[in-house]
Amino acid sequence: xxxxxxxxxxxxxxxxxxxxxxxxxxxxxxxxxxxxxxxxxxxxxxxxxxxxxxxxxxxxxxxxxxxxxxxxxxxxxxxxxxxxxxxxxxxxxxxxxxxxxxxxxxxxxxxxxxxxxxxxxxxxxxxxxxxxxxxxxxxxxxxxxxxxxxxxxxxxxxxxxxxxxxxxxxxxxxxxxxxxxxxxxxxxxxxxxxxxxxxxxxxxxxxxxxxxxxxxxxxxxxxxxxxxxxxxxxxxxxxxxxxxxxxxxxxxxxxxxxxxxxxxxxxxxxxxxxxxxxxxxxxxxxxxxxxxxxxxxxxxxxxxxxxxxxxxxxxxxxxxxxxxxxxxxxxxxxxxxxxxxxxxxxxxxxxxxxxxxxxxxxxxxxxxxxxxxxxxxxxxxxxxxxxxxxxxxxxxxxxxxxxxxxxxxxxxxxxxxxxxxxxxx
Length: 425
Hints:
Shape: elongated
Number of strands: 15
Largest sheet: 6 strands, mixed
Structural class: alpha+beta
Number of helices: 14
Radius of gyration: 37 Å
Helix content: 40-55%
Strand content: 15-25%
């Protein structure tokens, strides 16, 4: 009887100990599960409430880093700029900024030039990076792409410098010539000679100011607001009449021809200025007793028929390196010759903007010593009007096309498109 009681007591004690041990083990397991591990710290951090939503609407590229420099959150723009690769911040200066901010809590900002991904041309991205603490564990990096802003600022700065230089030249010449006139008051022949030079410089200054106004107007105005059907024959006749005196002085023959009764849709004044600039350049850069051809034709394109107006000269031609820049403002192939002819370097820039604003383009074919052919392509009146209507009401037509993009082959010259040419003295 005593033995059985002892066995029962021992069993009871063993059961109690087993229960206590099981309870302690359960509590220990729960504590281990609740304790953060190194992996959870690095891969599963929690963003403060609302931060994810705010980052998704920011225009800047956003990257959130944890205390181990691992990327917790990154916007698609950050990946596109190449800031994040393989889950890590790939730009060392930004990474060092993040570490410094994490250490002392100070907000930092710096501008950097980053290599552009996928190009071997050494082009750089200009960015502004700002780092700030985000809570006690995270760091927020905001990066803004300044490349386009810097490019626009450089263009504006160059434009202002070029305008200042171009205006300074005739103004300075007028000042010197006026002094010369005053000093030669007793010499009628000298006064007449200096007065003639003053008139030339005044004309150059007037042309420069007018072309600056024209360039500003074609860049800012919408030509389709005052659009109308414009006859190509009228534009050609006006351009020829504009250059008749210069051509006659150099004994240059102007021949106009091609398809008759063609029309484009656009601003008549701008189109006349663009074609007039092309013809005037052809005359100015052609030697004496040569020929300038102007021809128009209709060509078929996927987005609708186009009108091509080709202006061909027998001038000095344009080198390959200059052809890439001739449509830049104030760029001259031959500055000395431009001074002699009174060119401002803005004519082809105006042509380019007029063509683009009308949904077309201007291209050039040239060979040194063989002359040049400038081709102005514009949508025909019906096609342009339909496209304008489609752009204003896209639900009516989903198949509209942009302006043409084909290049003019060397064979497409004004002489080969002439049919029954009209020779103009």
